[in-house]
């Protein structure tokens, strides 16, 4: 375990997948940190606006006075600063591919995933098929492995895990949609089970019931917008 460093602070939000993945990395590395929870749906704190004036979003990591933004970049910073329990692959090709798929998830899957949550009953089947087509790419990647990172949790597991099973799937569950059925996605279901067996993952993911309620609130806000 590392000594508590001067000023390791995370400004996050309990239901934010981008914050959840940063907490997973800090816990995996054994980095002690102070955590401030933002209720950004109600009001953004002056601290958040001061630290992230560009996007005004969580998470924000402050380390020894340096402000870091954007969760994937924060994960890379954590990996390079605390080198125990590496999360990014060492091999340059594997590293590039982990970044490729992480970008795919945060851009493509997040966009169509949230879009599927606001579809009407009439168009939900088409939206479901669209999401399933995209996540089949991840099923093909995980099929032979326990984790995207190989034998244990890594960068891509944190990115995919925080977004799909522990965020979007909570919304799909609230809507009564079985988006990742085990017969279609056996690899992803096995991987989700593996993730849930990891203590730091369990410590970082939102409580299921509370999260489903929260996702339904988000769906309502998105529909009203
Ligand atoms: N690309 C950013 C996304 C962060 C993000 O979207 N955070 C959301 C919470 S899940 C947020 O702070 N939203 C506030 C807002 O949109 O005003 C990252 O990876 O850190």
From TrEMBL:
Keyword set, alphabetical order: Cytoplasm, Detoxification, Transferase
Family matches, as Gene3D superfamilies: 1.20.1050.10, Glutaredoxin
Catalytic activity: RX + glutathione = an S-substituted glutathione + a halide anion + H(+)
Domain GST N-terminal: 6-86
Pfam families to which the protein is assigned, alphabetical: GST_N_3 (PF13417)
Superkingdom assignment: Eukaryota
Record-annotated GST C-terminal domain positions: 91-218
Coarse class of the protein's main subcellular location: cytoplasm
Location(s) in or outside the cell: Cytoplasm, Cytosol
Annotated signal peptide: none
Main enzyme class: transferase
E.C. no: 2.5.1.18
Family as reported in the entry's similarity comment: Belongs to the GST superfamily. Tau family.
Function field: Is involved in the conjugation of reduced glutathione to a wide number of exogenous and endogenous hydrophobic electrophiles.
Protein name: Glutathione S-transferase
UniProt source species: Camelina sativa
């Amino acid at each position: 375990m590392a000594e508590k460093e001067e000023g390791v602070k995370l400004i996050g939000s309990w239901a934010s997948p981008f914050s959840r993945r940063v907490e997973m990395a800090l816990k995996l590395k054994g980095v002690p940190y102070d955590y401030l929870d933002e209720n950004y749906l109600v009001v953004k704190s002056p601290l958040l606006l001061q630290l992230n004036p560009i996007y005004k979003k969580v998470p924000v990591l402050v380390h020894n006075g340096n402000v870091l933004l954007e969760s994937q970049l924060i994960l890379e910073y954590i990996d390079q600063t605390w080198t125990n329990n590496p999360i990014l692959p060492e091999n340059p090709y594997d590293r590039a591919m982990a970044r490729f798929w992480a970008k795919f998830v945060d851009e493509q899957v997040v966009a169509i995933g949230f879009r599927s949550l606001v579809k009407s009953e009439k168009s939900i089947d088409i939206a479901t098929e669209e999401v399933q087509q995209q996540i089949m790419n991840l099923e093909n990647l995980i099929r032979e492995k326990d984790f995207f990172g190989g034998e244990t949790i890594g960068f891509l597991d944190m990115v995919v895990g925080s977004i799909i099973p522990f965020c979007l799937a909570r919304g799909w569950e609230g809507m009564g949609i079985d988006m990742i059925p085990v017969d279609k996605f056996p690899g992803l279901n096995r991987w989700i089970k593996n993730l849930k067996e990891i203590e730091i993952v369990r410590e970082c993911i939102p409580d299921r019931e509370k999260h489903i309620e929260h996702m339904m609130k988000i769906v309502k806000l998105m529909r009203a917008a």
